[in-house]
Amino acid sequence: MDRAPGLSVRLKLTLSYAGSIVFAGALLLAVVWVFLLRYVPEVIAAPPRGAPGSPGPMIIPDRADLQRAFVPKAALVMVFLLIFGLVGGWFLAGSMLAPLTRITNATRMAANGSLSHRIQLEGREDEFRELADAFDTMLARLEAHDAEQRRFAANASHELRTPLAITQTLLDVARNDPNRDIGALVDRLRFVNTRAIDLTEALLLLSRANQRSFTRDHVDLSLIAEEATETLLPLAEKRGVTVETTGDIAPTTGSHALLLQMTTNLLHNAIVHNLPEQGTVRVTTSVHPMTVVLAVENTGPKLSPQVVSTIVEPFQRGTQRVHSDHAGVGLGLAIVKSIAQAHYGTLIITPRADGGLRVTVDLPATRADGS
Question: Which of 11, 222, 266, 331 has the fewest CB atoms within 10 Å, i.e. the most exposed one?
Fold first, then answer.
């Protein structure tokens, strides 16, 4: 935005300091004038020279004499105060605005794309230090978000390129081999295309959760948990996994569709990454004074804390990729984390001592009156 040039803040502060000093000096001189000179008579009667008892020639200044002596000195004092106020105010304003200059330079660097710079303002806690620390925190979050977006874009590009490359290879083989089984080729293309569609829909869902572009309604996590369990019960039976769903009514506010997707992803992940035989999954809901909790616990292989800390990243699938019809696209827990954060909740993943994971989602609770 183009704006007309004006006085700098430093010059304005300098003029303010100088004006304050000159005003204080003028007020002090006025006090001296009013409360001192007013008691000096305009004409002072002196005894005649040579009078009996007179010590000799006497010079007694009257008000006019004091005025002639006071006014020039007062004018010099005012000039000195003005110069002192301008010079001292200029350096004082520069010293006070130095932190603001550093913040401005850091802002310009951030606007040009450099998010790694930090102000790191020294000194004791004050308004400028608080502003600089808040700006450094904002830059750190922006840098982390930018790095996460770049990493996610790179991973997404790689994941989307894979099904497209497979499709291209299958089409090239079919063109070079007219006698190839068309039915098998179509089935393979359908499978690859389905995986690409699932990945695209997962990316769109993740973007929607990150942008928090959804309508909030009153929902019950216990009902959502039961709905997700009914949906994935055939998959659990096929893989020999027992699913137990218990808990209290857990009222909260949010998107029913997104919270159902979050719960479904957690349950799907717990079923797929389980023991090959006689695995179990426990889904529970509980209510606390300020939060409601959804917990999904499953049996499975033992995982180290280092592995657990990375599985919420996009396209991470635990210790290794799972190649099956229900392996997912590597965005399940990433979507869960984004949906939880979009509902002002937290996601906590901890490894179980006997193997498997315990995943809990804490969401703000809704009271009985709907608030």
Answer: 11
Residue 205 confidence (pLDDT) above 90: no
Residue 368: pLDDT band (50, 70, 90) is low
- Quick one: angle between helices 256-272 and 182-211, nearest 10? 130
CA distances from 344 to 209, 250, 262, 285, 340 (A): 11, 16, 14, 17, 6
CB-count exposure of residue 22 (10 Å: 0-12, 13-18, 19+): middle
Q: Which residues contact 220 (CB under 8 A, 6 or more apart)?
A: 249, 250, 251, 252
Asked whether 129 and 121 are in contact (CB, 8 A), the reply is yes
What are 359's strand-pairing partners?
296, 349
Q: How far is CA 186 from CA 169, 175, 309, in A?
A: 13, 13, 39
Phi, psi values for residue 51, rounded to 5°: -70, 150
φ, ψ for residue 295 (rounded to 5)?
Answer: -120, 130
Scanning the structure block, which residue is given the tokens 């984004």? 338
Pick from 19-23, 124-128, 177-181, 336-340: least confident: 177-181
Q: Provide CB contacts within 8 A for 251, sequence distance 6+.
A: 218, 219, 220, 221, 287, 292, 365, 366, 367, 368
Q: Would you call 232 helix, strand, or coil by DSSP?
A: helix
Can you read off the two tokens belonging to residue 80? 């000195």
Q: How many CB atoms are closer than 10 A to CB 123?
A: 9
Q: Is 314 in contact with 329 (CB distance < 8 Å)?
A: no
Q: What is the pLDDT of residues 74-99, one digit of tens each?
A: 888 888 988 988 898 888 888 888 88
Quick one: how far is CA 76 from the chain centroid?
A: 56
Pair of tokens at residue 137: 């925190």
Q: How far is the C-alpha of 317 from the C-alpha of 324, rounded, in Å?
A: 13
Q: Give me the residue label for tokens 């002196």.
A: 46
Residue for token digits 């990454």? 273
Which pTM was predicted? 0.56
